[in-house]
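Homework-ish question, so no full write-ups if that breaks the rules, but can someone show me the predicted structure for this set?
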Amino acid sequence: MYFLRRLLFLLPLTLLIITLAFFLVRIAPGGPFDRERSPASPAVERALAERYHLNESLLSQYLRFLGLKWERQPDGSWKRASGGLITGDLGLSLKYRNHSVSDIIRQGLPVSLALGGTAFLFALGFGIPMGFYTAVRRGQTGDWMGSLVALVVLCVPGFVIGPVLILLLALKAGWFPVGLWGTASHGVLPMATLGLYFGGRVARLTREGMGQALQSEFVRTAQAKGVSAAGVLLRHALPLGLMPVVSYSGPMLADLLTGSFVVENIFQIPGIGVFMVNSSLSRDYTMVVGLVLLYALLLLLLNLGVDLAYSLLDPRVRHE
Amino acid sequence: MLVALLLLAPGCSRAPRADLVIYNGPEAETIDPHVLTGQPDGRIAGALFEGLTRFDPHTGRGVPGLAHSWEISSDGLRYTFHLRTNAAFSTGKPIRADDFVWSWRRAADPVTAADYSGFFFYVKGGQAIATGATNRLEELGIRAVDPWTVEVTLVNPTPFFPDLCAMRIMAVIPRATVEQFGDQWVRADPLPCSGPYQLESWRPNDRVRLKANPHYWDASSVGCARVDLLSGDSPTAALNLYLTGDVDFLIDKVVIPSELGDVLVRRPDFHSYAYLGTYFFRFNVTRKPFDDARVRRAIGLVVDRRRIVERITRMGEQPASALTPPGAGGYTPPEGLGHRALRATNAADYAAAMRAAVLEAQRLLAEAGYPEGKGFPPFSYMFNAGGGGGARQHENIGVEMQSGLREHLGLHMELRPVEWKTYLSELSQLNFDLARGSWIGDYQDPTTFLDCFLSASGNNRTGWRSTRYDTLLSDAAAEPESQKRMELLREAEAILTKEEAPIVAIYTYVGLFAYDPDRWEGIYKNLTGEHPIWAIRRREGGPTRSRNTAEIAPAPAP
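A: Not a homework solution, just the prediction itself:
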């Protein structure tokens, strides 16, 4: 029941988010067709605005975007304007005028998904063992070293790590390509660049979570019962210690899957991360709304997934 | 992590490398030759579609394209073009005079919403159509005399008209396809192309792949059968790909990291050349005290142009006192504000000339009522934030001007960085004091610059109106004698850059591209930066492997 309610709640929330996006991007100064050179004549400007319905009132544009705009036909009858969100049509990109928004997302999303998904696994594969190790060695040299590494990868931004990796492993050593997308080896450096930062966060979260779990009473009970040290750590403490990581995974995955502007830019990867930033700078209204919709849906669904995982991992959490 | 690596493998497929890989810059907004505006878009569309003329790879001027020759009437107003009998679209369908008539009408029609339809103002009836004054498209001065003869009637003798005919907006496009698919006709598959190449694939933010058009009239001259044009916004990525040989040709300055410009221009495979573009700043003459020409001239005089090109831009740009770069159609620009210093051949002369200019500026400012800058209201210099590449050149130039104005004239100028679209909208609404400006010429004639500052031009954006200037330009347009025409244009430009100074020129651009001259041929330097792709070919006997890394591998910068 709880999850059903949450699912139902998703719809109005998503609608609210994209409505906000729709109006906010239109409030910003300038428009999609403002350029350094002015068009040949005001007639051209008018024709452009008309073609993309930018000459209509905001409300009318909004209804058209939703697919709820009814237009008077020459014969006097009323007919719904074609397209719109209810038909799953996000419209043409206003900047890339030969592509629809869905077309661009369809081509770029798989790339961002592959990159983000592997970076996610990389982050977990790097962060959890690192956090686990530092938690177990708390206060010892291993803790200091591990925590330092986690802190460094967390603090050094991708636009530094990426070029450094390119310089060392691609330009100098020649092990990996410097950019583009195609084979598995193209993915390694971007995956590491993107995953390291999140890996650092995961390591710190795991360390904190494990630290708390190790001090909790059920761990002491287990130890008192004579469970082996490894058993205590892995069977009892680890699931609880991972709770902060689990709750962080939702937003982290949503971030990773929708692409990274920085990493895609550095490595020349045709994902959707670049569009996420550029579409709002270029006032590509339709694209902004389409991408916000995608991001919002992912974030909401993944957070729901996180809550589900909570109830599986932690016996104390029950959603009724 | 291993799992992650294994997961990367699927979803990865690669087409074999193209014969020539060009880093083309930002993703094309459209490849419809009539409506496109961007240079990367133009490079793609220029390979796919051709007009009566095409650009000469050496000079960038219009030379016979789909028309093999033409005659010009004695008054210079009537052009009779003769089409090639083997002109055909990539589908094999012949190209005839009617196709040109229809294409030009479509491009001029405001319903098509072509930003560049102003090029049809030179053609009789074009202005009335493009401004919406009439919707009778048949009034456009182009007609099919017979299937192989196109007759064009102009408003004025236009010596650069063959150049205009090579512009993308004058290209011939397939009527049936446009009528079937409307706006999205370029997505038709197959897309009938009139140029040396046809479209094989187009993946946004990745690449456009072209393949040679077997029906092109000059198919035997096309150097590379398959060409990839990579799209992307990152000059650093472009340089990395070039250094590893994944890219053969960095075609434009914007895809080369500006912060490394001065290092890269010293490499033998990076080539810089004079380019038809000018960096300047504009005043908003509708605001006090910039409505006073003395104030504008005083500010224009103290700009240390040489310092800007030597310390900030550093790629061999030439300091300029006039708007039009030298050499456009044989034109010599007049001497504008601050020209004396620019004639100096050594540092001492330059310093002396700058001191004289500063004294002159101080006198002008005092005359205007602001001795030593007293009583001068604070004002700002608007520019697009983060612009000018990784080296943030716009901001640095602003800082340089700021300190010069304070030191020499006692003026307090604030810097006002704004985001790109805000910059554009503030410019057109005249919502600024001083603003950065630049202009890239479309064709090799001074009018491509000077027309911007006509009173009625949408590109004026200074609020400056001068009937004297307007009259000189229209007299020049009607003048059939080339020498006299150039004199009139010079006179007009002197008003713009010396007497009235609604704008102040700073420097003229250089173009920059990179390729290995031992491996590739057919790429030449010209003023408009036209490098037709069909002309590029692998040099016979040249090294097969890329040697782009040979000299230095500069560290990639963020």
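Now go work out the reasoning yourself. Hint: Chain B touches chain A through 75 residues (CB under 8 Å).
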